[in-house]
Amino acid sequence: MARLATLLRDDAALQVSDHGDGLAVIFQHGLGGGEAQVAQAFPSGPRLRRLTLECRGHGASGLGSSRPFSLSMFADDVLAAADQADLDRFVAGGISMGAAIATRLACRHPDRVAGLLLVRPAWTFDSAPDNMRPIAEAAGLILSHGPDKARTIFAQSETSARLQRDAPDNLASLFGYFDRADAAPFAQVLAAIAADGPGVSASDAAVLGIPTLVIGNAMDAVHPLSAAHTLAAAISGATFAEISPKALDSVRHFAELQAEITTFLHAHFNIRSLIPS
After folding, report:
1. 65: buried, middle or exposed (CB in 10 Å: 19+, 13-18, 0-12)?
2. Which of 29, 46, 55, 184 can pair with 33 through a Cys bridge, CB separation 3.0 to 4.6 Å?
3. Whole-model pTM?
């Protein structure tokens, strides 16, 4: 059973889910995701405490009026959630956007982050990487034409055809952006985050010196396997794992993902505390 809390930031009310007791792991969702996405990806088990903040405009969290949206804003919100939960030190991780947030937290607040779990990263160190162009394209169409017309235009685009062929799971996620009840205001978040970056460098990552797991898979144009390889190579001592593509077998994908996370945490941490083993 999740313990739910509200974090007030500026004029935004953000929902925080807190599960279990034990090793503290802050694990964040991807762009457009939320608590449900994390619950599907993160292993449930004894002696683990998993905290997830639904970022502004995601899940049950409000957008607020602060602009522009950015990965640094979301990372600051996550750190505030850790403070509210009295987590002085924790493992940071997440999927896609969540991985970028975790990387920023580790580099900017090394005294707080004891380890990293980077799942299907979409960013390495640059802003607006090429793999984020489909999201930027979808957001631009929604902002220009409204969600219904934008969906029709996007469905007939070269981007849609390419993703249908090479990364159908990405395409399904993109169509989900058009179908949201709040598609028009959320497109502002999509556009801003797609153009952003984690604000850290390869040299920042190289000196982290903390246990790190980087997980990637093939058949994913938005989260290219090359990004996972790049991050694993940049972070000294990082462990790299390739798992089955979600586009081919989602059940196997999530089973392998949870197994990799569980094995990593048990190998590198005393699960009863935050002391590296």
Report:
1. exposed
2. 29
3. 0.96
